[in-house]
Each structure stands twice: as structure tokens, then as C-alpha cells.
Specification:
Layout: H1 13-26, H2 31-35, H3 46-51, H4 62-79, E1 85-90, H5 97-110, E2 115-120, H6 128-131, H7 141-146, E3 157-158, E4 164-167, H8 177-180, H9 183-195, E5 199-204, H10 213-218, E6 223-229, H11 235-242, E7 250-256
Parallel strand pairs: 1-5, 1-6, 2-4, 2-5, 6-7
Antiparallel strand pairs: 3-4
Helix pairs in contact: 1-9, 4-5
């Protein structure tokens, strides 16, 4: 019998994560409950969504919404019935990879039988929390990876879009490869994916050009979507960028007009 002031510490952080992953898999939550997630009446109206350059169901952005729905249909067709992790990366900076990532996540959240989780993995230049109007008071991805015993719930933020949650990047870091290649990162993704069978994860990665992180992140993803800036990235640059990834994971190249 332990003294009331005695504290039992786990053998390692990795043990904690492994136990958490096993527990999540032992106690799955049905898709019905999570599919009805809302933001408790705090959902954004179409005008607010357009101000943040986000798609919605109204006619004013029908063309843009249909474009992202088409990408969603392609990914679902490739994957079949299984949920998946998609990495979205641009060929070069300012080609619009983050724009595509958050709108693709929003397109999946349109479906009331699915939920989306967007994870900002651009640790050098994080942008998703600003674009979605989220104030990450409790930190983000890096904060969780450095202190996983705190739990993932504090860094899961509402976005104003039903069934779409965000994990912001957290503290800015120059050397991020060590986090992405860590056991903690892969275990976190496995846990988030396994807990809900209707949850689809989207990793917003840094530009391929000038950073090894995109390739490292691709090892954690089921699919890779490469974003090319229309009139910005040359065919040669696009071709070179695609060679960084496993051909079996390449879902396609999206040409984007938006920065």
C-alpha cells in the first residue's frame, strides 16, 4: 500500500503514449456521436467564412466548393471505407498549400457522417490558427509532443465550422524534423485516427522546396496532395517535387490560384 503522498511515475513518455493508444483502441466511440459535433452555436456564417477564405454550402462560392469536393471524392475513392491521414504540401512557399489544406478539411466536414482534424505541421511559419481565428491559449502540437502527459484535448480547438477541429503548431521551431520523426508523433496520429472511425486527418506541411520536413511527414501519411502555384511553379519544379514521395501515396497535384 502506497503512502498518500507517494507519486507513481511511468517508466517513460513512450510508455504513456503506448498505453494511451491501446486504451483508445479498446474503447472506440461510435461515429454517430462525433459526426454530430458542432461548435455549440458558435458556428460561422457564410460571410464570415468568405472573409477567412473558407468554402461553405451557399451559391456564392459554389465553384470553389465543388473543386474541393472533387478532391474529397478522389481521396475517398482511393481509400475505400477506411479513414486516412492526408499530407498537403506546396511545391514552394506561397503556393497556397495551407489554403488548400484547410478548405479540403472543411470539405470533409461538410459531410455529416465525417469529421475533420487539421494539424498545422508548418512549425517554422505556422498560419492555420490565424486563418481560422483561433487563439491557441493552451499551446499546440509541439507543446503536446514535449509534454504528452498533459493530454491532447487542451490543444484541440473549435474552428467555427461544425465537425472541424484544429491542432495549431504551437511554439515556433526551426528544427522540426526531430519532432515529426519521433515515436511520439506517430503514436499521436495513430491514437487520433483510431479513436473515431469517421475522423479524417489533414497535415498542413511546409513547402517541399528548401525543407526536408515534407518528406519526413509523408512517412506518417496515407496520401500526399501536392499544391502547385498557378503561374508560380514550373513543370520542372513540380516534377522534381513529386519525386520526394512514394508514388503509391501520391493522390495528385492541385493547381492553386490563391497564395
Amino acid at each position: 500500500m502506497k503512502d498518500e503522498n507517494e507519486t507513481e511515475f511511468p517508466g517513460s513518455i513512450e510508455d504513456v503514449l503506448e498505453d494511451a493508444a491501446r486504451n483508445l483502441q479498446k474503447h472506440p466511440v461510435t461515429g454517430h456521436s462525433i459526426a454530430r459535433m458542432s461548435d455549440g452555436g458558435g458556428e460561422l456564417v457564410p460571410l464570415q467564412l468568405e472573409e477567412r477564405r473558407l468554402i461553405h454550402r451557399e451559391e456564392s462560392v459554389r465553384r470553389q466548393s465543388d473543386a474541393f469536393r472533387e478532391i474529397r471524392t478522389r481521396l475517398l475513392g482511393i481509400a475505400g471505407q477506411q479513414n486516412f491521414v492526408t499530407l498537403v504540401v506546396s511545391v514552394s512557399p506561397r503556393s497556397g498549400g495551407s489554403f488548400v489544406a484547410r478548405n479540403l478539411a472543411a470539405a470533409f466536414a461538410f459531410d455529416e457522417a465525417k469529421t475533420s482534424l487539421l494539424i498545422d505541421c508548418n512549425l517554422r511559419y505556422p498560419s492555420q490558427h490565424k486563418a481560422l481565428g483561433v487563439e491557441p491559449a493552451a499551446g499546440g502540437l509541439i507543446d503536446f509532443l514535449e509534454q504528452p502527459t498533459l493530454g491532447i484535448e487542451p490543444v484541440l480547438y473549435r474552428t467555427g465550422i461544425a465537425r472541424l477541429r484544429l491542432i495549431p503548431a504551437g511554439k515556433a521551431r526551426e528544427n522540426s524534423g526531430e519532432y515529426f520523426s519521433s515515436f511520439r508523433m506517430s503514436t499521436m496520429l495513430d491514437s487520433l485516427r483510431c479513436r473515431y472511425p469517421d475522423r479524417y486527418l489533414f497535415l498542413d506541411g511546409p513547402a517541399i522546396k528548401g525543407s526536408p520536413d515534407a518528406r519526413i511527414l509523408s512517412d506518417l501519411a496515407d496520401f500526399v496532395v501536392v499544391v502547385a502555384g498557378y503561374g508560380r511553379d514550373t513543370p520542372a519544379a513540380i516534377g522534381q517535387a513529386v519525386t520526394n514521395f512514394d508514388p503509391e501515396k501520391m493522390a495528385g497535384v492541385v493547381f492553386n490560384h490563391m497564395p
